[in-house]
Amino acid sequence: MAWNPGKYNEFKSVRFKPFFDLAALIEDRPGMEAVDLGCGTGEQTAMLAGQFADMHILGIDSSAEMLAEAESFRKTNVSFALQTIEQTITTGKQWDLVFSNAALQWVDNHEQLFPALLARLKPGGQVAIQMPCQEDNLLNRLLYALAGEEPFCTALQGWNRRSPVLSMDDYAQLLFAQGGQEITVLQKVYPLIAASHDDLFQFISGSALIPYLDRLEGPVRDQFVHTFRQRIAATFPVVPALYAFKRILLYAQY
């Protein structure tokens, strides 16, 4: 899946707000070894390292395009590696902090993922995770519905991206089942004030739309984009419009 760092960062101020909320949940402990799963451009990885005393952090991402941007944030205590989240949690390495901001929604089977991820914590370690609640978010629902219609369903060979994100109750139970303490599970709305329908399209085109466009080409790809834009305009008939983007934040100590 080809990521465009410039496109993703067009809404940087909106995308960074949950990062700050997530980082605020973490207890400061000197000398933490941390991993940032799905670090993207690495800017937040470096910011996290600067927020905690003597932290050493590894940012991993599966996008070479994103990691090319991350190199500018490399320091003696901030490093990066090209690998998937699944590869990272099977290395046997353990950390004091497992951090992930808006990345785990791209990994399936959270009922299996989370126990494996939490097993990578040292005794006394912390986990802090944020994910968009895609099935509760209107643009994602429009996108999913459109991909199920013809001619797009055939062009996509029946593929559609069902979000693996579970309920708040499910995550509370997963964190608790692995021995979590000081558990926090919350949902928060991060409003996007869109001045135009194009703002709404551009916001989702930097993330959730990418795998759909990767699988389409030619006239049907153009038709998909055109129809999706029409659906956005019909759903938000008045602009400026407020898009209530919901995210789930998780934290626990072990």
UniProtKB/TrEMBL annotation:
InterPro entries found in the cross-reference section: Methyltransf_25, SAM-dependent_MTases_sf, Trans_acon_MeTrfase_C
Biological process annotations from GO: methylation
Domain of life of the organism encoding this protein: Bacteria
Residue ranges of domain Methyltransferase in the record: 35-125
GO molecular function, one term: trans-aconitate 2-methyltransferase activity
SUPFAM superfamilies membership: S-adenosyl-L-methionine-dependent methyltransferases (SSF53335)
Name assigned to this protein: Trans-aconitate 2-methyltransferase
